[in-house]
């Protein structure tokens, strides 16, 4: 690795001393929970969830762009993989890596402490909004050439989460930028998305479906 001419340009963002994502999510959830409940009582559950979903997706994109801006030499699927230590920190995920190349990053999650944490906090019904639905927009915010396909999540009741990332060259990528309003539409799981979201996905048959926490 040390002899590769691009090594100096592809160093990962330093994560030493960074708080793990699981710890962040617990803190965030404790703050969000009473705010969400107040919204739900005022405007109803459907609208409250829509607002929460949109806000968290936008935060995920902003966080991803922040990581990208701090990546020396530019982003790639390798630098994206380097960030995963933050999501697995504190034994947050039990992961089985199936492929890790310059163009593919495939893994299954067999235990998700994010899902366990939200359920323990009584927030399992919005856990997919707090965590899972960030993933597709986070990778696109970090680098629009990275696309996620996922068909199921532990949060949604499946036995495991199936993350399948692909690095697509710019001319083939689904978007050159990440539109805030429909960011991550390729990556939102039909299982995790609400009825309104699934309806919109049905109207765009050319887009692949998948959902989940990857944003910071």
TrEMBL record:
This is 2-amino-thiazoline-4-carboxylic acid hydrolase. It comes from Labrys wisconsinensis. Residues 175-216 are annotated as: Disordered. Residues 193-205 have a biased composition (Basic and acidic residues). InterPro entries: ATC_hydrolase-like (IPR026002).
